[in-house]
Specification:
Blueprint lengths: L1 H4 L19 H16 L5 H13 L4 H17 L8 H16 L4 H20 L7 H75 L9 H28 L19 H10 L5 E5 L7 H21 L5 E7 L3 E8 L15 H11 L3 E6 L5 E8 L21
Parallel strand pairs: 1-2
Antiparallel strand pairs: 2-3, 3-5, 4-5
Helix pairs in contact: 2-3, 2-5, 3-4, 3-5, 4-5, 4-6, 5-7, 6-7, 7-8, 7-11, 10-11
């Protein structure tokens, strides 16, 4: 209570979370009420009446000092310049308004204590024989103070509940966004596991078969190849362990044996999209060449997700897919015109753009998305892919030695 009542610290009344032109409506109403109360109070000293009413405006920023000054003004008005009987009501209303504004900013026990002190002051003035009206007037003033505290406490509780709810919604949205990124990264890692594991398996197999393709291979070479094979197998084991960590509980989606898609299956993807009601066109520029499996997989998934977004948000729109092969990168662009048919409710999880950005960033590339001037949408990605070195000439098979199967 000492921290709430015995302080001159400013506690501004915050604006409402309403439209901009209504945010300051309570402050405006308080100022208007102060002017009306000052005019309606009939006392021998109008200056005191205006000063008392002005405390309503002061309470908007300094509620505790305003309450103390209002208590003093109430006592001074009653002792020295008692108002007319028909205007005493406005004096009590001003003090109740200050008490209400105090309750909005301080804890409930402090506001109850302030109301009790105000009531005790009124009872003391009545017992001392000053002109405060009958006991029914005193009881009405006490009820008015209690009502001010009750309404103020309810309003403050609702405001605090709304603030906590808003904060919780913001925290939930941040957590959902963080979980979305983590889920997408785990899914990308599970897909790339197959690509990396394929190359590691090839290294292991070739290292195991190499001694049988070289006649009279030196023991040092055999030992080195055996070490390469052991390292490759160890890497495969680590990959499998990492995949087990990334896999969600009960998720067996990564246990299948189907190969990961690549741009070679792009025609099949476009055919399935056409069967769903969209007719995208494919344009290929530059010299088509094999890309690294990671780039092939990421390019396929980006095109797949972009076309899925068109189906969900712009059904029937004219859509084009452009692949441009350069010496050290693949540039892809998916552009759709405005929707022709109304879009229905989207069943998607909202992870598409996040996944596309993660795939591009993983390869050291970039992805740009956004609306086009004609009202459509565009997805543009650049996926770096350095040209592979020249193939190593094949080693002639060794005579008299059979390779492992």
């Amino acid at each position: 209570m000492r921290a709430d009542l015995l302080t001159v610290r400013a506690r501004p009344l915050p604006p409402l979370a309403w439209p901009h032109w209504l945010r300051w409506l309570p402050h405006t109403l308080v100022c208007l009420a102060a002017v009306l109360a000052a005019i309606a109070t009939d006392t021998a000293t109008p200056v005191l009446a205006f000063a008392h009413a002005a405390l309503l405006v002061v309470a908007l920023r300094w509620p505790a000092p305003a309450w103390w000054l209002s208590t003093a003004a109430l006592a001074a008005t009653t002792l020295a310049y008692p108002p007319a009987p028909n205007s005493r009501f406005y004096v009590w209303m001003v003090h109740a308004g200050v008490l209400f504004l105090l309750t909005l900013r301080v804890r409930l026990p402090s506001s109850v204590a302030a109301a009790l002190l105000s009531t005790l002051l009124t009872v003391g003035l009545k017992l001392s024989g000053h002109a405060v009206g009958s006991w029914s007037v005193v009881a009405g003033a006490a009820a008015l103070f209690a009502l001010a505290v009750l309404v103020g406490a309810v309003a403050r509780g609702r405001r605090e509940d709304h603030a906590r709810l808003t904060e919780q919604i913001a925290v939930t949205a941040q957590e959902r966004a963080r979980r979305t990124v983590l889920e997408e990264r785990a899914r990308i890692a599970r897909e790339l596991h197959d690509v990396v594991a394929h190359h590691m398996s090839l290294i292991s197999i070739k290292a195991d078969a190499a001694p049988y393709r070289v006649p009279d291979a030196p023991s040092e070479l055999v030992d080195e190849l055996a070490s390469i094979r052991a390292t490759a197998l160890e890497g495969l084991a680590e990959l499998s362990h990492l995949l087990g960590v990334l896999r969600a509980d009960g998720d067996d989606s990564t246990t299948g044996t189907a190969p990961q898609p690549s741009l070679a299956q792009l025609d099949a993807l476009l055919a399935s999209v056409r069967a769903a009601g969209l007719d995208p066109t494919l344009h290929v520029e530059g010299t088509v060449r094999p890309l690294s499996p990671g780039v092939e997989l990421s390019a396929y998934r980006i095109v797949q997700e972009a076309l899925s977004n068109v189906l969900r948000h712009a059904p029937g729109a004219e859509t084009s897919v452009v692949l441009t092969y350069t010496r050290d990168a693949l540039h892809l662009r998916v552009v759709n015109a405005p929707a022709v048919l109304p879009a229905g409710p989207s069943p998607g999880s909202g992870h598409g753009l996040t996944g596309m950005r993660e795939r591009a960033a993983m390869l050291g590339g970039d992805l740009v998305t956004g609306p086009t001037p004609d009202g459509g949408y565009e997805v543009t990605a650049t996926l770096p892919d350095a040209p592979s070195s020249a193939p190593v000439p094949p080693v002639p098979p060794a005579s008299g030695k059979e390779p492992h199967s």
